């Protein structure tokens, strides 16, 4: 299932949105594939998901910092007080990621 991701170059620099959409699609398949994992493999998957969550949070912080440095947050219709929070929340939830059919 995940072999195609390992065979590709990182692709993030080329098209981050497409990379993230592919990652979401692959992760959406994970629950239905867990039955294939032996008992000893479940801890590794849990650790991998935790590490992934940390990287997602770090990437979100970097995204907000980049948007702020470019003035995107200032141009947003979100209120100035807490503008970063409103901008990031509005941006995250206004563009749903593609989920595979």
Put the structure in a nutshell.
By secondary structure, the protein is mostly helical. 70% of the residues lie in helices and 0% in strands.
Task: Itemize the secondary structure elements and their pairings.
Elements: H1 3-7, H2 16-33, H3 39-70, H4 72-75, H5 83-94
What do these coordinates show?
- By secondary structure, the protein is mainly alpha-helical.
- The protein is 70% helix and 0% strand.
- The chain has helices at 3-7, 16-33, 39-70, 72-75, 83-94.
Please tally the β strands and state the result. Answer: 0
Helix coverage percent: over 70%
- Please tell me what the overall shape is: elongated
Note the run of SSEs as H and E: HHHHH
Regarding quaternary structure, what we see is single chain
Segments where pLDDT lies below 50 for 5+ residues?
1-7
How many helices? The count is 5
Mean pLDDT: 77
- Share of β-strand residues: under 5%
**Using only CA atoms, what is the Rg?**
17 Å
**What composes the largest sheet?**
none
Overall SS class: mainly alpha
End-to-end separation: 16 Å
């Amino acid at each position: 299932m995940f072999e195609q991701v390992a065979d590709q170059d990182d692709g993030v620099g080329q098209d981050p949105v497409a990379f993230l959409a592919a990652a979401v699609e692959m992760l959406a398949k994970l629950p239905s594939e867990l039955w294939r994992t032996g008992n000893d493999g479940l801890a590794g998957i849990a650790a991998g998901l935790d590490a992934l969550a940390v990287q997602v949070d770090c990437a979100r912080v970097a995204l907000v910092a980049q948007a702020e440095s470019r003035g995107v947050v200032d141009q947003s219709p979100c209120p100035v007080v807490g503008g970063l929070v409103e901008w990031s929340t509005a941006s995250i939830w206004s563009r749903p990621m593609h989920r595979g059919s």
